[in-house]
Design goal:
Length: 174
């Protein structure tokens, strides 16, 4: 005995990634089965990247504009936008993002002589300091870590929570 089975494909992206105006990845936790996301940023510009499994039959748009290297200008507070994936069969799937632009906090790293230090967010993305300094503008109450390096082979690391005027003494690797 045979049965007819109707399979309806739900359009999805393989990946959605967002970077801030400095090129730091601020969103890379996309799951095709989750349709709403919320996160905080300190930079007023977002660049959105997407990857489709079948580009010939699918299209992606962000609030009705074709998604191709889209840059979004954020305003203070919560910003809402949607990314819609459409299949040539007429089916669509929408992902909604609530991105809150928050004021950053100033964090200073005291780095020992002959040591270099890098700061990373919880996703392992390098956070760049203010040019020519060891000062960072970070998301309040977010968790970060640093890696101190000497002679390319010796490292120290510590985790910290960003707070206004926090001063971190980077441990000298031994």
């Amino acid at each position: 005995q045979s049965f007819d089975i109707k399979v309806t494909r739900i359009p999805t992206c393989n990946e959605i990634i967002m970077k801030d105006g400095n090129g730091t990845t601020v969103f890379n936790e996309f799951n095709p089965e989750i349709n709403e996301y919320a996160f905080n940023v300190t930079n007023d510009e977002l660049e959105v990247f997407s990857e489709l499994s079948d580009a010939d039959n699918y299209s992606v748009s962000i609030d009705a504009a074709a998604l191709e290297d889209v840059k979004i200008k954020l305003t203070e507070g919560e910003n809402e936008f949607s990314i819609t994936v459409a299949h040539s069969n007429g089916k669509t799937n929408t992902y909604t993002f609530y991105v809150t632009l928050v004021s950053s906090v100033n964090v200073l790293l005291n780095v020992p002589e002959n040591v270099t230090a890098e700061v990373f967010n919880a996703d392992g993305q390098v956070i760049l300091p203010k040019e020519g300094t060891t000062e960072y503008w970070l998301i309040p109450e977010a968790v970060y870590y640093y890696i101190g390096t000497i002679d390319k082979e010796y490292h120290s690391t510590a985790q910290f929570t960003a707070a206004e005027n926090l001063v971190i003494d980077v441990a000298k690797p031994e």
